[in-house]
Amino acid sequence: MTLLSLLALAGTMLLLAAMPGPGVFATVARALSSGFGHASVVVLGIVSGDLVFLLMAVFGLAVMAEALGSFFTIVKYVGAAYLIWLGIKLWRTKPEAVNIDGVKENSWMANYLSGLFITLSNPKVIIFYLGMLPTFVNLTDLGAMDVFLVATVISVVLGCVMLGYAYLASKARKAFQNPDAEKRMNRIGGGIMVATGSVLATKG
């Protein structure tokens, strides 16, 4: 594993992560509706999903994808339904006093799972780890340290880009701190989540 390979991988990940997609939309939606803290947990789920695919790629993603083809289809529809459900719930949330600074205790798992499902059901992520990753690293010749370095690059680059989106969206949210504005933010965020789930469900 060379430094040039790691830099090339980091650059590619930066471009892919910055491109608007289900992960970006869900992160922005959560930041707009609930603040940076909530969105950061969504990002954690997104990064975790990428690491799952990385490990699968290292240990034979093509074989596993063929064997578990129906499982990936199930994950896709479960993830899409989950996002749509979260979006509808957010849309129907009754406006109240906004607490920007803290993450609600009961929402950690819901936020994390939404991010995880987004990644696991995103065909672009599967294609990247199945088709593009081998152009940067020789998956059949990776040692433990190589896997650690690749995982670190992916986590840092993807996490920083997504957290950047979350931070900017949460700053925009602070300009709307009254019940009517919160209702609009909830509906925007909920609408984005429902749209994201619908796109995931209909994509091949």
From TrEMBL:
One of its GO terms (cellular component) is plasma membrane. The keyword Cell membrane applies. The chain crosses the membrane at residues 36-61, 68-88, 108-130, 142-168. It comes from the Bacteria. It is found in: Cell membrane. InterPro entries: LeuE-type. Pfam families: LysE (PF01810). Its main location: membrane. One of its GO terms (molecular function) is amino acid transmembrane transporter activity. Keywords: Cell membrane, Membrane, Transmembrane, Transmembrane helix. It is a multi-pass membrane protein. This is Threonine transporter RhtB. It comes from Litoribrevibacter albus.
